[in-house]
Design goal:
InterPro entries: Chitinase_II/V-like_cat (IPR011583), Chitinase_insertion_sf (IPR029070), GH (IPR017853), Glyco_hydro18_cat (IPR001223), Glyco_hydro_18_chit_AS (IPR001579), Glycosyl_Hydrlase_18 (IPR050314). Residues 1-28 form the signal peptide. Keywords: Carbohydrate metabolism, Chitin degradation, Glycosidase, Hydrolase, Polysaccharide degradation, Signal. One of its GO terms (molecular function) is chitin binding. The protein is α/β, with parallel strands linked by helices and 426 residues long. The chain has a single domain, classed as Glycosidases (TIM Barrel). The protein has helices spanning 10-21, 51-56, 84-89, 111-122, 141-144, 148-163, 203-225, 239-245, 292-301, 349-352, 383-396, 414-422, and strands spanning 2-4, 34-40, 65-71, 127-133, 181-185, 230-235, 256-259, 309-314, 316-321, 336-337, 346-348, 359-363, 368-372, 377-379, 400-404. The strands form 2 sheets. Strands 2-3-4-5-6-7-8-15 form an 8-stranded parallel barrel, surrounded by 5 helices. Strands 1, 9, 10, 11, 12, 13 and 14 form a 7-stranded antiparallel sheet that branches. Strand 12 (359-363) and strand 13 form a beta hairpin. Helix 1 (10-21) packs parallel to helix 11 (383-396), helix 6 packs across helix 7 (203-225) and helix 11 packs parallel to helix 12. The protein is globular. The two termini are 34 Å apart. The relative contact order is 0.15.
């Protein structure tokens, strides 16, 4: 294990991992890698992060997809907006608009959806998907997926609202063509997610039936519009959750699926740890443990095609404080979560990269890094680490990378640019 200053270059990570991946046969392909960035609906508020910043930073031109998060499933088994003001009502100033022109009263549509429309006009190859559910919006998925009738009802409402663009109170079809597909973020079929979520053993089979219904209705719409609509899903890293809620045959309905590559450990635990290592680190105190390799291998074992697996990467850190053990701080007892700007125990990359008094530590063999100042510990995915993870994606024959979430990157989109460089194809 080596200690690097903050000026450590990506070359060190690339050179160190070359031998690690040499034994894994890469699957050569000329198909471009998928690069998916999540944009959070609520980020325009306290985080002051608008889609204009995604354009100005250069991130938009380096992505293939943006997942717009989130659209909840209601108790009535329908798709809805979690925040209509953010989605299609709030006006943006010229400074905060993608096209540099201020919204005006009476225009057909405003809000984030109109900004996504402007973003696609400047980046014609960019595809935008609505992500359904999420951690706090998945409570009623199980009910909505329970029967043929409930599945048809849910999917029809989702297609009508988000794909056909029939927004409440606006001209029918006003948002048609803005979104190019649907991302299913049911967290989680058959196992615990947010407290209060409805869970059934039959969720596992019903999730497959739900993906089939989405594919059926999206393909039916394609026949009239002559457009392909993407269907994707966000999938867990935990093998236990995979077994409880998912069948390998979902992949025949999905264009690709993103696999959670983070939150393997976090500040809810009493000792510091990695949150997104490629491989389980030597000396890890938990057995079994989590890693990207554990997650990806589990999905491959249930029949997932490698090229349809997209590895999730974090644009944020997990943090602990009150660490008193000597050494580099890893696997050490802590008194609690480190203070964070928006929540205790988490912090954006753009913030932690500039914290004073911290050393950068890298375990290049396992593929993770962290910051430690003798008391406080932060996991740390910087551009060098992103490059190392793109090497893994290439060597493993995967379909690309997903990033949660774009507002965590710095103003120069350093993380997104590193991912794009690592997954460049001619």
């Amino acid at each position: 294990m080596r200690v690097f200053t903050r000026r450590a270059v990506a070359v060190a990570a690339v050179a160190a991992v070359a031998s690690t991946f040499a034994a894994t046969p890469a699957q050569a392909t000329i198909k471009p890698y998928v690069k998916v960035g999540y944009f959070t609906q609520w980020g325009i508020y306290g985080r002051d992060f608008q889609l204009a910043k995604v354009q100005k930073s250069g991130a938009a031109s380096r992505l293939t997809h943006i997942n717009y998060a989130f659209g909840p499933v209601t108790a009535d088994g329908l798709c809805a907006s979690a925040d209509a003001w953010a989605d299609w009502q709030t006006p943006f100033s010229a400074e905060n608009s993608v096209d540099g022109v201020a919204d005006v009263e009476g225009q057909p549509i405003a809000g984030n959806l109109n900004q996504l429309k402007e973003l696609k006009a400047k980046n014609p190859k960019l595809r935008v998907l609505i992500s359904l559910g999420g951690w706090s919006g998945s409570k009623y998925f199980s009910d909505a997926a329970l029967t043929d009738a409930s599945r048809q009802k849910l999917v029809s409402s989702c297609v009508d609202l988000w794909i056909k663009g029939n927004l409440p109170g606006l001209t029918p079809g006003v948002a048609a063509g803005i979104l190019d597909g649907i991302d299913l973020d049911w967290e989680w079929p058959g196992s615990a997610g947010e407290v209060g979520n409805i869970i059934r053993p039959e969720d596992k089979q019903n999730f497959t039936l739900l993906t089939a219904e989405f594919r059926k209705q999206l393909d039916a719409l394609s026949r009239s519009t002559k457009k392909h609509y993407d269907l994707t899903a966000f999938l867990p890293a935990s093998p236990v959750k995979v077994d409880a809620g998912f069948e390998g045959k979902i992949f025949k309905y999905l264009d690709f699926a993103t696999v959670q590559g983070y939150d393997f450990h976090g500040s809810w635990e009493a000792r510091t740890n990695q949150q997104s290592a490629i491989f389980v680190p030597k000396g890890a105190p938990d057995n079994p443990d989590f890693s990207s390799e554990v997650a990806i291998n589990k999905w491959i074992s249930v029949g997932a095609p490698r090229k349809k697996l997209v590895l999730g990467l974090p644009y944020y850190s997990q943090g602990w404080t009150g660490v008193t053990a000597p050494g580099n701080g890893l696997f050490a007892p802590a008194t609690g979560p480190a203070p964070g700007t928006f929540a205790a125990g988490t912090e954006d990359y753009k913030t932690v990269k500039s914290l004073p008094g911290f050393k950068v530590y890298r375990d290049l063999k396992s593929g993770h890094s962290w910051l430690f100042d003798g008391t406080t510990f932060w996991t740390y995915d910087d551009p060098a680490m992103m490059l190392q993870k793109t090497l893994y994606i290439r060597a493993k024959g995967l379909g690309g990378a997903m990033m949660w979430s774009l507002d965590g990157d710095d103003t120069n989109a350093s993380l997104t640019k590193a991912v794009s460089t690592g997954l460049w194809t001619p």
